[in-house]
Amino acid sequence: MGFRCGIVGLPNVGKSTLFNALTETAAAQAANYPFCTIEPNVGNVGVPDPRLAKLAEIAKSAKVIETQLGFVDIAGLVRGASKGEGLGNQFLGNIREVDAIVHVLRCFENDDIQHVDNRVDPIADAETVETELMLSDLESLEKRVPNLAKKGQQGDKEAKLAAVVLGRALDLLRDGKPARLTEANDAEEARVLDQAQLLTAKPVLYVCNVNEEHAAAGNDYSARVFAKARAEGAQAVVVSAAIEAEIATMPADERGEFLSELGLEETGLARVIRAGYELLHLLTFFTVGPKEARAWTIEAGSKAPQAAGAIHSDFERGFIRAETIAFDDYVSCGGEAGARDAGKLRQEGKEYVVHDGDVMLFRFNV
User: Fold this and answer.
1) Closest Cα partner for 78 from 112, 115, 28, 50?
2) Do 323 and 347 touch, CB atoms closer than 8 A?
3) What's the predicted TM-score (pTM) here?
């Protein structure tokens, strides 16, 4: 199960620099002119989790494998994208394929880096991008909703439900509001919204790209973005793409001291990933043994068979039970054997809802 976040924004706000730093590659060409990123670059990053190293230490695991989160660097957007301006159609199509939008906003001043509108205003930048996404969704739904309503009148129950739910989204878009504010009254309505693949229904994480001196506390620009995020129920983090790019080139054992000198406790990568996890309502469970200690990502609320399926579809298909130990119990008992002796190893069935940090061993039969 892979989760992908699309990095978007206006040209020259630091998208590709951030992508390169996050994925510790030079896969995306960072250049001081629009459209330097034409094809979406995709990179998977390991999710930093100190619990994994602790589990590996206790189990004496030969390998440690982090769970992954995918980032897609998508070409810069300009006004008129919803009508195909610039790389508009490609931009919108690429966004449709991701699970969440990481919206990079320029929150720094630098006369050497040209802004497409010759000004620094992250709120206006955010509104430019969101307006194009809303216009695209609006055009789509104004065609789809009447057709669905017509089919509903002819007795198609699925179309009738879709017309009602997407009609609510259309009303919001006509009022200048994103489709993510559409209320779903039950699981069926939520499914309809999800299947509609509306661009403005995707959760948003605002990344405030600041200068090095503002990396720890942010600045006035980022404060405005955080206020916008709170009002929308979105999330925001402060990152200095320039610092992240420098960290990416450093040996791992030098990064801690470098961050400390800048007044930072962790990398921007860690902040972005943690916010992305919260945004997508994800959690981590672990499998641990002498060969490897490994972290896995699933959606919060997933049951044990779904967690098994994250490892292999056969595990889910033939699921029997899950031997489960809470992370704290695994550590305090010194591993699986100690947890078993202490009665902390539980046999969980198909209805068990997985908790963040569970250490699991699946029994299955195919």
Assistant:
1) 115
2) yes
3) 0.80
